[in-house]
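R.M. (postdoc): so does anyone remember the format we settled on? I'll just put the structure tokens first.
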């Protein structure tokens, strides 16, 4: 059996080789899934194997199916890379293997979680008194925040949802924007609020909630009400008009939740902070560290201006949890999880390695690069920009759906860059997100050139 130190050393070499290959390896792998399945599959092993042999075989067999999402020309979805300090901190997190549900299982994990919570509130312009938790992602941040919202709006109506559940409760009106993220719907569904119960507020044609429509939908409404607004629409990066929404929600006595999965990070930039004016008046916020902060998956963030409601919605007790000393925090009281990874260590590493200035530079650079891409691609024949590039998202299409899809497929297949397609107002579109710290101007120029070649090939063959 390989000695443990040797195993870790060798694994570090494999990982470093991979990271060094990111700039030039094909962004999207070419191996067919059947090949991957054949290489990685087979019968359940009967016998033990040497750990180094296991890791080497895994690295060899998985490599052809690994997408270079951490690399400089991956622009799909909204996908951050991994800052060097965060990868290293993530290894330590695994080596320490702290169960970060209870303080007694890892006092340093609990302290670091508290520290990053305070740092993040300051960085993102959120109230210092807000409660905070780290979740797997923005999806579970929504679940946590909206559970707190449900708890609070029902409590104000004299109903304790913890005791009595939703059967027979006063109805909760939930107002959401037409361009909301799908994870909001699923969070609400898990909390007992179904699709037919949602009041969908139209958008203004530019991806933002129409505040006048929201006002109209809130008018005359009484009883428990939740409004879900968005800072950073997933295709366009558009920000809902938060000052107007916050005002309307306040007048209606509604709980305001803000989905800022990536868009909340604009608050870290003095240049872009204005986009979040009004966000500080919300009741809860959901975001991600694994997108724009560039920590490894998985890491979501939730903040709540009503710590008592947040705590009431999530806390749980067991005799065997209690009486083992006092800790800064027991995360089981603030998240829907029990045993959990000590994901604060990577966030801590990111914030310490970048500092306030580094986070602002990362965010601003991504936005500048998105502008550079938008300028380059929109100069190509037949290309139409579909959004105002407010942050790091670019949405565009070519002359018709056929051309758009064919050009995208060629760029994806080229291995030069990868971004996804979507449908926008009934037509095929391409969405590009600049979220990784490794991306620089030459990467943008290479990507524009890949589009130019693809368009020429598609036009020539058409
Ligand atoms: C990515 C995203 C989510 C979901 O986040 P996960 O981290 O995937 O759970 C929610 N809202 C918006 C706007 C997003 O971009």
């Amino acid at each position: 059996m390989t000695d443990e130190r040797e195993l870790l050393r060798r694994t570090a070499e494999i990982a470093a080789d991979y990271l060094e290959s990111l700039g030039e390896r094909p962004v999207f792998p070419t191996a067919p899934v059947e090949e991957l399945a054949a290489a990685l599959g087979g019968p359940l092993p009967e016998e033990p194997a040497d750990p180094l042999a296991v890791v080497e075989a895994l690295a060899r067999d998985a490599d052809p199916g690994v997408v270079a999402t951490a690399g400089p020309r991956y622009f799909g979805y909204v996908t951050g890379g991994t800052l060097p300090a965060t990868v290293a901190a993530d290894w330590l997190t695994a080596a320490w293997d702290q169960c970060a549900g209870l303080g007694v299982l890892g006092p340093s994990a609990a302290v670091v979680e508290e520290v990053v919570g305070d740092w993040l509130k300051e960085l993102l312009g959120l109230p210092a008194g807000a409660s905070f938790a780290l979740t797997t992602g923005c999806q579970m941040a929504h679940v946590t925040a909206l559970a707190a919202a449900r708890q609070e709006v029902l409590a104000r109506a004299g109903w304790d949802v913890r005791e009595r559940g939703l059967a027979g409760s006063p109805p909760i009106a939930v107002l959401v924007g037409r361009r909301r993220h799908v994870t909001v719907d699923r969070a609400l569904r898990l909390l007992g609020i179904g699709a037919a119960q949602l009041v969908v507020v139209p958008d203004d044609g530019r991806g933002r909630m129409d505040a006048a429509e929201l006002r109209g939908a809130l008018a005359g409404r009484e009883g428990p009400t939740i409004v879900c607004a968005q800072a950073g629409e997933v295709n366009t990066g558009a920000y809902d008009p938060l000052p107007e929404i916050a005002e309307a929600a306040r007048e209606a006595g509604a709980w305001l939740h803000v989905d800022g999965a990536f868009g909340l990070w604009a608050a870290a930039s003095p240049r872009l902070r204005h986009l979040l004016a009004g966000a500080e008046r919300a009741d809860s916020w959901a975001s991600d560290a694994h997108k724009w902060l560039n920590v490894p998956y998985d890491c979501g963030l939730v903040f709540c201006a009503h710590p008592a409601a947040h705590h009431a919605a999530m806390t749980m007790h067991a005799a065997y949890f209690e009486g083992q000393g006092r800790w800064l925090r027991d995360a089981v009281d603030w998240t829907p999880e029990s045993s959990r990874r000590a994901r604060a260590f990577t966030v801590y590493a990111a914030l310490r390695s970048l500092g306030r200035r580094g986070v602002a530079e990362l965010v601003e650079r991504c936005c500048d690069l998105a502008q550079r891409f938008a300028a380059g691609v929109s100069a190509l024949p037949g290309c139409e920009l579909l959004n105002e590039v407010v942050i790091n998202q670019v949405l565009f299409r070519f002359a018709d759906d056929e051309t758009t899809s064919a050009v995208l497929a060629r760029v994806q297949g080229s291995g030069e860059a990868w971004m996804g397609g979507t449908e926008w107002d009934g037509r095929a579109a391409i969405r590009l997100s600049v979220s990784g710290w490794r991306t620089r101007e030459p990467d943008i120029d290479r990507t524009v050139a890949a589009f130019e070649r693809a368009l020429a090939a598609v036009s020539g063959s058409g």
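R.M.: ...and that's the designed sequence above, right after the tokens. Also worth knowing: The longest helix spans residues 344-378. The two ends are 60 Å apart (CA to CA).
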